[in-house]
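U., I forgot to send this yesterday:
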Amino acid sequence: MLGQYELSGHDSSGRLAFTGTISLISLEQDHLKGQCTIVGEKYGPEFLFEKNGGCEGLVDGKKVSMDLAPFLDDAGLLLEGELDHGRITGVWMLDGFATSPPLGKFEAVRKGR
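Result:
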């Protein structure tokens, strides 16, 4: 599971909302840590902040949840998905005063082996 992933997220209409990379560098029990870079695209939410910094997540079997801004109380990008043969696919939400409903789908594809 550790390694670098190329990330892309699409809104509920299928338009590209963001791109980025996720570098997963440690897995202790079920807790993931890494470095993430997010770039908002033309159809991304206005309040999706571009970011380059730490990210954290939890793993439960094949299920993966990631917080790409774990040190912010709001405006964080949340990913919930499943790992399958070097790919993580699922839905994305925004964390704020309350967590949004799913706003679209994402895919993170592992680079190299």
